[in-house]
Amino acid sequence: MITAVVLPAFRSGAIAGNPVKGFEAVERRFSIIARLSILIVGVTGFYMTYTLDLWDRFAVARYWWMHAMVLVWLVFTLVVFIAEPLYLHEAFRRWANSSPKNALNYLVLAHYILLTLSIVTVFGAIYGSHYGFFFL
Question: Is the full-model pTM beyond 0.85?
Answer without folding.
Answer: no
